[in-house]
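Tokens for chain A. Residues wanted.
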């Protein structure tokens, strides 16, 4: 039973706590047992909370007295090692940062989870400063995919997905600056949503600027909505944050997709997609038609946004490295140094031009969504490839295999990845659901409808 507890959803755990059929202490110990067994294999965690059982005992006392602390009291959750956690080192996958800190602050997401009684398991691995779409670093080594340990789990929230998929905690905080929630969820068969920019407050500001989002990684859509209820609570430190929306994101999840107008774009009009991935996604899209939606094959009609994104991303990398002492640059990932060097060569005029083109792209998608409620695409152009590589052979940067994710960081739209099938090699493939800006609830609703036909499956570990 204890091992089964580690594989349950947060929603299921909370019901067991409410009815006194299980305790947070049992769950914490079950999660720790899974970590002892599987973290050496998959390398999901780079820091573990030594007080987890003591924290669980406090939660157990609250449940026994009928006074749970909040919406997630006693539920284990991991924090990506880009997100500040008071008293714990946040090293961002880098040898260039001093573990001694000090570490006096919680980031907004961490603070809200703590206030709602979540059990913080530890910090999950990330590539250095989250700069690429896979997860490995000189500091923490290579993180691996629970479906096949020889494959990458993706990134940059690779440790987060490895933890959730392998039963090392049901919830994880991820970040997404160009796909870093959706990429690893696609590679590991999980659900993750990049909310509208500003929906989840973030602090301090990302060096990569206003393409960077914070969001939940879970085993089902209901848990993501529950987690979003907590993570979206206001925090005055984020100057970019949206006005707080007090809705319960679980409300309306089961409204379905009947009569929704869905555009299906198999390649955005320009992307090269692996044939097996394309076939699985096309088959999955037909589910929406059977559920009553109107589906039309339609590209959104914009040119490849990679040049715009690269300018934003490379300029951010250059700014990041300017804040690190030059004598420590030799400690940094060679790929990060290359990207930053390209960013240093950008002129102010080139950056401003990319910003203007970004605004045109955003306006274009606003207009597109007058005719379509949702856009669906593959999440990625490929299934998971070998761990320890930035990209499959024949490609030059991680953007080459992520053409569907980063455009919607530029436009700041809500976008989710939900698993839609498996390749012949047994690797998960993700379906990408994109909504108009601020229509986070609609994206969750469509994902829930799809999930009702295709539930998330976990690896048999």
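Reply:
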């Amino acid at each position: 039973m204890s091992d089964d507890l580690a594989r349950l959803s947060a929603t299921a755990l909370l019901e067991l706590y409410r009815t006194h059929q299980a305790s947070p202490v049992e769950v914490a110990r079950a999660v720790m047992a899974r970590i002892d067994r599987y973290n050496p294999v998959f390398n999901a965690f780079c820091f573990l909370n030594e007080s987890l059982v003591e924290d669980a005992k406090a939660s157990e006392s609250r449940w026994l007295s009928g006074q749970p602390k909040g919406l997630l009291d006693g539920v284990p959750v991991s924090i990506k090692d880009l997100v500040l956690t008071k008293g714990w080192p946040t090293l961002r996958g880098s040898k260039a940062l001093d573990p001694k800190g000090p570490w006096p602050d919680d980031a907004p997401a961490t603070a809200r989870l703590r206030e709602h009684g979540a059990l913080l398991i530890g910090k999950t691995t990330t590539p250095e400063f989250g700069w690429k779409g896979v997860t490995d670093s000189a500091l923490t080594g290579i993180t691996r995919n629970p479906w096949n340990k020889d494959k990458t789990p993706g990134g940059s929230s690779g440790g987060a997905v490895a933890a959730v998929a392998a039963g090392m905690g049901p919830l994880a905080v991820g970040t997404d600056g160009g796909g870093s929630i959706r990429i690893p969820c696609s590679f590991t068969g999980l659900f993750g949503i990049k909310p509208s920019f500003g929906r989840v407050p973030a602090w301090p500001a990302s060096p990569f600027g206003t393409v960077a989002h914070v969001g939940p990684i879970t085993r089902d859509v209901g848990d993501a909505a529950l987690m979003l209820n907590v993570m979206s609570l206001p925090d005055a430190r984020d100057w970019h944050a949206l006005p707080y929306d007090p809705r319960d994101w679980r409300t309306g999840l089961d409204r379905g997709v009947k009569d929704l107008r869905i555009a299906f774009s198999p390649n955005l009009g320009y992307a090269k997609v692996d044939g097996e991935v394309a076939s699985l996604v096309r088959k999955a899209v037909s589910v929406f038609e059977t559920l009553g939606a109107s589906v039309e094959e339609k590209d959104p009609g914009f040119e490849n946004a990679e040049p715009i994104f690269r300018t934003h991303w490379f300029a951010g990398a250059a700014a990041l490295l300017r804040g690190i002492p030059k004598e420590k640059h030799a400690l940094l990932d060679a790929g990060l140094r290359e990207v930053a060097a390209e960013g240093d060569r950008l002129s102010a005029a080139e950056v401003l031009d990319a910003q203007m083109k970004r605004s045109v792209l955003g306006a274009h998608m606003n207009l597109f969504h007058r005719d379509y409620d949702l856009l669906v695409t593959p999440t990625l152009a490929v299934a998971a490839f070998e761990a320890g590589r930035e990209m499959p052979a024949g490609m030059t940067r991680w953007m080459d295999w992520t053409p569907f994710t980063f455009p919607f960081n530029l436009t700041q739209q809500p976008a989710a990845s939900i698993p839609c099938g498996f390749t012949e090699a047994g690797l998960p493939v993700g379906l990408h659901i994109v909504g108009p800006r601020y229509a986070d609830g609609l994206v969750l609703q469509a994902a829930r409808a799809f999930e009702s036909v295709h539930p998330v499956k976990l690896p048999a570990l």
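The domain at 2-453 is CATH 3.90.1300.10 (Amidase signature (AS) enzymes). The first strand starts at residue 45 and ends at 48.
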